[in-house]
Design goal:
Number of strands: 0
Largest sheet: none
Radius of gyration: 30 Å
Strand content: under 5%
Distance between the termini: 66 Å
Oligomer: single chain
């Protein structure tokens, strides 16, 4: 009975190993970094310095000079990140202004970037909105009011 029990346990274990196999560990070099387009070599170097200062500070939390160096590293990292982000979004904004890049993906990038001062030209956005508001209004020349109401009724009844 014991041999039969051991045999059954080994079969169940083998079936579980096949079905619930652990994935192989992926080496760190195979993983792509998930940084934004503006996060370049200077940002990575600043981040490394910041992480190094954090590790040193964790080893010696009471040392005043290490705290001062760490604060300086934090400030420099923030400054590098801020300038790189600002340059990237300003160049993106200039490309859109000059008509080199006009895609919804780029507009969404600018929309996600929120600052106190707007990076988009408000006048251009207002004309953009007015254009599409006029295009889809009842008074646009491409569609008469009755046809539009028929289409809206059909859309509402099918929904």
């Amino acid at each position: 009975i014991k041999a039969l029990n051991d045999n059954i346990i080994s079969l169940i274990g083998a079936a579980a190993d096949c079905n619930f196999a652990k994935p192989k560990a992926i080496s760190r070099s195979d993983i792509k970094p998930r940084h934004s387009a503006w996060f370049d070599r200077d940002c990575r170097v600043a981040k490394r310095h910041l992480n190094k200062s954090v590790r040193i500070l964790n080893k010696h939390p009471d040392a005043a000079s290490i705290k001062l160096k760490h604060r300086a590293n934090v400030k420099s990292y923030r400054k590098v990140i801020k300038t790189k982000k600002d340059k990237f979004f300003e160049s993106l904004n200039n490309k859109i202004k000059h008509g080199k890049v006009v895609s919804w993906k780029d507009f969404k990038k600018l929309k996600k970037f929120s600052k106190t001062d707007a990076k988009l030209d408000d006048q251009k956005l207002n004309t953009f909105q007015d254009f599409y508001q006029n295009l889809y209004s009842d008074h646009h020349s491409t569609i008469d009011h009755t046809t539009k109401s028929i289409l809206l009724d059909e859309a509402l009844s099918s929904a």
